[in-house]
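Summarise this fold before class:
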Amino acid sequence: MKKFRLFTPGPCAVPEEVLLEMSRPFHHHRTDWFKGFMKAAAEKLQQVLCTRHEVIIVTGSGTAAAEAAIVGIHGPGSKLLTIEAGKFGQRWGEIAQQHGISVTRHAVEWGDTISPEQVAELLRKDAAITAVMVVHSETSTATKCDLQGIGKVCQQAGKLLLADCITSAGAMPLKPDEWGVDVVITGSQKALMLPPGLGFVAISPRAWSAIEANKSQRAYYLNLNKARKSAAENDTPFTPAHLLVRGLVKALDVLLEEGLEKVWKRVASMAAATRAAGSAIGMPVFSKSPSDSVTALKPPAGIAVKDIRTDLEERYGIESAGGQDQLKGKILRLGHMGYVDEMDTILAIGALEQVLYKRGHKFELGAGVTAAQKSIAERS
């Protein structure tokens, strides 16, 4: 018997009650039945995202939500600064370029992060910049940035701040209203504990002003003005993934019942335990500013990441992730989002030890589990 265990940084494990909710009989989406779910989902999303700003629900992934925001906000005369410290930061710059938006793409070494002071300097050098886009938790490198500090810099400079929070929302501390984040983007298949298919955009009044002023809207399906008009009636402009919206309400209830502070603490505990275990068994942490939602570990010399991942899945049913692009074969990633807890993490670390031991890696068997257990105990 082999159980399937999902430790990828998205899609993430979904609670049974959410899956069951989505399997129940359903009605047509242009009904009060569906509008009730939309209203509840929007209100609960505000609670989970810690914002009073309007939240738009998009049928599509987090990338769809991000594209809607980028294209919607940037009309003629605007200029976007993208901070690109990984695969997803690069994606936002590529989207802006493809849509003909004036954009400065600032590259950061993968595994590193940008400081608020560096952002301030970039803004001082180019007064034409009207908005900044950063990735709060860069999934490809398991690296977080100082979103709060960057928010303060953007507020002082009078610039809009768009944040890819796809692997931070619902997993790590995030207070957009307090921090001055104008647009928060996330997706369903990460910490919000749903299958892929929904994107979410929380938008401040300042950002809505930019969207409304953009008279050369390039988007049709991903048009935020259309989405906002429908959302005012608890509806959508196009066919929604309505069973996912139904599941979303249940998933958000699960998070809110646990309490966001406790969720953040649980995720941080799993991340710290994994980092401690990695150090103990000769798999050091890759990132210089580690995220809590996903951990990237360097493989031992002589053992390929693909072999570690294959063994984890075939022997123990654990699905992990490798590196992307320039990091392919250089890191192993384990997620801490979704329906997982500290004991699930201990299990994954134990399986990782077994794989490395059988592959001939020299370390004290049990060292990783012990380090993780101590880390969890110290945080309890």
About this structure: Residues 260-280 form the longest helix (21 residues). The chain has a mean pLDDT of 97. The chain has two domains: 16-257, 259-379.
